[in-house]
Specification:
Layout (H helix, E strand, L loop, with lengths): L4 H5 L9 E5 L4 E3 L17 H11 L14 H6 L23 H13 L8 H14 L9 H5 L1 H8 L8 E6 L10 E5 L5 E6 H7 L3 H17 L1
Parallel strand pairs: 1-4, 3-5
Antiparallel strand pairs: 1-2, 4-5
Helix pairs in contact: 2-8, 5-7, 8-9
Length: 227
Amino acid sequence: MPNRFDCGIKGFGRGKNRHNYSDDGDTLGHDPYRSWSRSNAPEAEVTSKDEWLYELALAPISIHTGYPYPCRQEDLDSYSIKKKKITHFGDFLRDIVFCWPSNIDDAVREIEAYLDPKRPPSAKEQSAMDRLYKALCLEDGEWTPDVPIKAFRDLDTVFFQGRLCGNVKVGWVSGKELPSDAIGTTVYRFNGHSKIKLDADYHIFESWDPWKQMWQTLLHEMVVSNL
């Protein structure tokens, strides 16, 4: 029976990815724990399959396209970055996210307690883990970039107590929409809300392991959104 560690938490966050923080898209800063830049990435050959994956990533996510990961269309619509309205399902970790550093300490303590291996998962968490484990085992040629987005609610359930859905939007964007050295960014908005943008150009055309790294980047940005 898969557990949280089987769902990839051991390897996530250790990739050589660069992160950018933004206060509603205005002031950009760099993650002090990352020093990687695109200039270090090896060149990758672009194929017609890559082009198809790229188009799929930038298209509106639908349960009828891409990989059939079990999810609801209403969930995909609620956290799509292509939808302007945020459906607020409840208070975020804190109403105001700028209480540094105490807010970060609170977030870390709460998540550490939630991820304690000694705590048995609920039936809901276990179902989410089973779906994630099956998706993470997909081979090259089977996966599509919509899978991590479709799995966002399950990742939230397994790792973040379900706090992010309804407060965080997520999706793929063209690399032109991000700073040149960023492959993912979290844009902070109002009352603890945020928007996660993932670089489709890098992950599909340039990454040495796109399937693994897109999960790593998404989870990294989810951690940032939770702080």
